[in-house]
Specification:
Elements lengths: L37 E5 L21 E2 L2 E2 L12 H5 L5 E5 L2
Length: 98
């Protein structure tokens, strides 16, 4: 039976049927922000802390602490610009380069 061999303690290296992974990978160990060609710039004055930008970030690069967003995690932000598109207050703009 497969449940005898694969469970939440199985190392991710043991690829499973259907590629189910029960352990976090290593993405936090790599600074994928180095790939960025555009950089989001956050204007604190315009920001209303609606937090609409945080769930759409595919890299989880917008930290939230105590219901307030913080500065971008530029080590992991790839500059996709989704956050800027969803911000209804224009508090995030994209600039070219890092």
């Amino acid at each position: 039976m497969i449940s005898d061999r694969i469970n939440e303690n199985t190392p991710w290296q043991d690829i499973t049927e259907g590629n189910k992974i029960f352990q976090a990978a290593t993405s936090r160990e790599f600074h994928t922000g180095e790939w960025r060609t555009s950089t989001p710039v956050w204007d604190r004055e315009k920001c209303k802390q609606c937090l609409l930008c945080t769930p759409v970030c595919p890299d989880s690069s917008i930290p939230v602490k105590e219901r307030m967003r913080g500065e971008f995690d530029y080590d992991h932000c790839k500059g996709c610009g989704i956050c800027a598109k969803v911000c209804p207050f224009g508090a995030i703009t994209m600039k070219e380069g890092k």
